Amino acid sequence: MRAVLQRVTVGAVRVEGQIVGSVGQGYVILVGVGHGDGDTQALWLARKISGLRVFEDDAGKFNRSLIDVDGGCLVVSQFTLYADARKGRRPSFTDAAPPDIAEPLIVRFADMLRQEGVSRVEMGQFGARMQVEIQNDGPVTILLDTVDMPQG
Fold first, then answer.
1. Which residues belong to the active site?
2. For residues 137-148, b (16+ Cβ closer than 10 Å) or e, as one string?
3. Overall CATH class of domain 2-148
4. Across-strand partners of 18?
5. Taking the model in full, what pTM does it have?
6. N or C: which end of the chain has fewer CB within 10 A?
7. First to last CA, the chain
């Protein structure tokens, strides 16, 4: 799984002009699923994201996690994170898992964030054409890939 984590003051997803998910302080998480990804990768990602210390303490240092600041998450499916643009001008998405695998895993990932203690988790609409509003705070943007997770 791949995730682009953006620390935000506000984030929202609209489908056909209607807000389907929104969050205040916290993260907008653009997440993609690749072939072979499953619950192990989703749990690692949920634990990493919920505990990652990228919120400032009183001294201005990155010492607080999402849990510490009682922040929320807006999870947005993003198969394009698996784009392969090495050849030609049109990216290939063959490394992205098919929707029947990706959608339930992204839903489980959101549930895992809740289980890790994230008080508010909202989602975009899988497969829809979405407009994502992100007010990046900092800006802080972090790329996470489960290919980098410890083995064993």
1. 78-80
2. beeeeeebebee
3. alpha beta
4. 15
5. 0.94
6. C
7. 17
